[in-house]
Amino acid sequence: EKGGYEHFMLKEIHEQPAAVRDTVSPRIINGMPDLSQDGVDMQKLKDYRQIFIVACGTAMHAGMVGKYVIEKLARKPVIVDIASEFRYRDPIITKDDLMIVISQSGETADTMAVLRLAKEVGAATLAVVNVVGSSIAREADMVIYTHAGPEISVASTKAYMVQISVMYLLAFELAYANGTIDKERCMELTAQLGQMPDIIRETLELKDTCSFVASKLVNAESLLYIGRGLDYALSMEGSLKLKEISYIHSESYAAGELKHGTISLITEGMPVIAVATQKKLIEKTVSNIREVKARGAMVILICDNSIEVGEGVADYIIRLPQTDEQLMPMAAAAPLQLIAYYTSVLKGNDVDKPRNLAKSVTVE
Ligand code: M6R
């Protein structure tokens, strides 16, 4: 049942190219993103005052990527929140707003509660869900199913990848409907998204490098993931994955915030994983890397293969295949998952069933 892989997690990491293809290709019509078959009317969607994206854990991290690309391309304001925070903070949401909830299982209690809350105030609701017929899918006004197939490993991998694929489809179509990108740019981005299964496949070939990096992390007590913009969103997911299955403490930090307190944690040999795929931000991130390096950090840099990195900036570099900058989270996700996976394996942990956790969190 594990298809020759040692763990479900590794199998599911390798299923990502197919999962993305199955999720994305039926929704590209004549080179343009098209969610109308999912019952999504973009002309209506573009007129909502405010978009909320609410979810838990990894699904919330997918929402963070959604926020960046929707705001960047469609120029609509997006608030992302954790379901268990959103529901209790008397949120300002009205019938003029759109609530997007993201959930692999479709059964997460807090996410479900947020969906109900949004419906009560008359907001439009859209669920991005993997499990067909699940509670969240049944109650939302609109559903976009991700087609990852069953995800068995507690640590979510392929579900995250298809959730972000849907965020891209949404952002591209919304941006075009909103007139903030033209047809040519929309087709270009959509074509790149259509190519992502191949790019992800290429990134899976980095597994030996990732396992080597894991061997450098396995004895660490604590580490940091840093990035800016989309790379920060991705760092959050990388960090969660590592904590969840390797039991090594880690934190993700917006690179520019380090010097406001956290940099004091850096001691000789502490690993710092820096994600730097966004050209406009690379210089800034590199200067943050130099700051941690000067304090003794062991730096692992994840960047695309076009970026020139000066001598001595990083101890180890993971080079990603190139794609449109906006889509780089899809290229960086698998290496981050693999680093977590191999670290967990090296520690001899129960990779697919980490302690204290359940696959689906149906309690509040
Ligand atoms: O089923 P859901 O997507 O609603 O689950 C949300 C989180 O519980 C889930 O993503 C969790 O964070 C994962 N175990 C992380 O790998």
TrEMBL record:
GO terms for molecular function: glutamine-fructose-6-phosphate transaminase (isomerizing) activity. Keywords: Aminotransferase, Cytoplasm, Glutamine amidotransferase, Repeat, Transferase. It catalyses: D-fructose 6-phosphate + L-glutamine = D-glucosamine 6-phosphate + L-glutamate. The keyword Transferase applies. The active site is at residue 359. Residues 41-180, 213-354 form the SIS domain. The keyword RNA-binding does not apply. Its EC number is 2.6.1.16. It is found in: Cytoplasm. Catalyzes the first step in hexosamine metabolism, converting fructose-6P into glucosamine-6P using glutamine as a nitrogen source. Homodimer. This is Glutamine--fructose-6-phosphate aminotransferase [isomerizing]. The gene is glmS.
